[in-house]
Amino acid sequence: MKGRRYSYCLYLILIQTLASYVPSLAAPEGSLITQIPGFSGNFPSRHYAGYVTIDENHGKKLYYYFVESERNPREDPVVLWLNGGPGCSSFDGFVYEHGPFNFEAGKPHGSLPTLHQNPYSWSKVSSILYLDSPSGVGLSYSENISDYITGDLKTASDSHVFLLKWFELYPEFISNPFFISGESYAGIYVPTLANEVAKGIDAGIKPILHLKGYMVGNGVTDDVIDGNALVPFVHGMGLISEELFEEVTIQCNGSYYNSTADSCQKKLATVDEEIKDINVYDILEPCYHATPSKISFTTTKLPQSFRRLGVSERPLPVRKRMFGRAWPLRAPVRDGLVPSWPQLLSEVDVPCTDDEVATAWLNSEAVRRAIHAEPKTVAGNFELCTDRLKFYHDAGSMIKYHKNLTSRGYRALIYSGDHDMCVPFTGSEAWTRSIGYKKADSWRPWFVNDQVAGYIQVYENNLIFLTIKGAGHTVPEYKPREALEFYSRWLADKKI
Description:
Blueprint (H helix, E strand, L loop, with lengths): L1 H19 L11 E2 L13 E9 L4 E8 L10 E5 L8 H6 L4 E4 L9 E4 L9 E5 L9 E2 L6 E3 H18 L8 E6 L2 H17 L8 E7 L5 H5 L2 H7 L5 H10 L10 H14 L26 H6 L7 E6 L5 E3 L27 H7 L2 H6 L5 H4 L10 E3 L6 H9 L3 E7 L7 H10 L9 E5 L2 E9 L3 E6 L6 H4 L1 H12 L5
Parallel strand pairs: 4-7, 4-10, 9-14, 10-11, 11-15, 15-18
Antiparallel strand pairs: 1-2, 2-3, 3-7, 3-8, 5-6, 12-13, 12-14, 16-17, 17-18
Helix pairs in contact: 3-4, 4-13, 7-8
């Protein structure tokens, strides 16, 4: 009897052990990825990918790539990741930032890259759901091209539909803590989507998502506050002189956003001239200029176009930028659309763009078959940032969204690489302070391996503002170790 009880106990232990290594039992048939061209060896966790149809009538499909946690996928958080643009694929984050692989460019130029395991992948502590959104971005597509005319609010609504359908396909993850995250223009995507999810929870829409909070990196938030952030940033970084800073402050009355005063515009033009050769994504990195056969491009006008972001609800075209990111651009309206800037550049390539690895990998039909993506004949050529969208910035300031969500108990981490000139930390620090919450802690450094990794301000209602020392616009790309560290601590609700 004793031996039989002992055998039965061993049987139970074996069953429990096997069960812990067999997540995603309800995953859609054919979604499991078993191998990927360019990578040899075993995956450190299970990967799934495919399409979710969010509009049957239009054939509107959103593509996802899901990486299970390498630690404990049954209990670890599920985190949705969104890149910005609008118009940039979340493979930007997957390939260049915190995905499960590091990509080594192929030789010769344009050939398939070689993949290695990423020791700082965010899948070390969580499951990550990479989503190409809205339709028309990355590997997502629609059979009705009218779906490529969209905006903030429609994108949030579509992404919410995606999540409801996705969790129906993967019901074993519904009880896991769920977080929404992203960077850059996802500063709009994340809070608007979190708001949709929260409303769905309140309304009892099933499945009930276990939303705990959200995270935004170097995110667009408020036109005026973000638009006023550049001049103080470049002055504080020593990129313009004290004399010029005093002059532009006087002429613009301390308000640099969308000023119509000639005297202010002239001084802002001088500021732009001073910083035109600086890499807008990381002021410490070089900016490579065009070969003589192309128009020499600098970042001169980018900050000015940023100051004009969202002046109206007119459609915003998407233009590739340095490192393949994109930004909604403003210019005089012609025929109801906003032309790309500057008009001189037209269709020429933007120097500093480097999408080689992602483009070569995701335009390979072998890779597409392996990751269950439609071929180019259906979904089109992969571009890290597309210009086929007509996008409306119609959600306004995000501050009301943040205040509503955090006041209701949702946790929020707002982080900034402190050397990003595109969406400077000065703006993010200002708007988080403007919400008016009391400080729960003093401004202080945070550490990784006994070294200062940045600075942190904790507010009441679980709102945190965090800087990462020496990082640019895409923090995990510049500081992968530090990024994984604050990400891990925050998800676990531990002190950073």
